[in-house]
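Board notes (copied after class):
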Amino acid sequence: MLPPSCRIYLCPQPCDMRRGYDGLYAEVRRRCDESPLSGHLFIFMSRNRTRLKILFFADGGLCLYCKRLEKGTFKLPKVEPGQTSVRLAAVDLAMLLTGIDLRHVRRQELYQPPRSLTDRPVEKIDKTLQK
């Protein structure tokens, strides 16, 4: 499980998979405008989308996770033209790694509390919900 403060960024443009820690570190700075030392996950793919690398900082050092598909390709989510990075949820990353096509995933609309409830102090909300 990822910490709640951890973000996941997918760089949709192809990346040279010969790059290691330093090369991907530079790509994060250039494409995502984020610090590679932030603890966030940064995902890069090969041109033919059969290889994937994830760069992240943990326990005092950079970590690199690599995966190569022997059959098929990784399916990217919808990307707007000119977009240099796409923010993913942890569940999106899990689906991406297991081969689920993120372009065709239908999400259920989640409940959002009315604005009037989110502006009240917690004690008033508890009383409102008990009624």
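Comment from the instructor: Helices lie at 21-32, 90-98, 115-118, 122-130. The CA atoms of residues 12 and 97 lie 15 Å apart.
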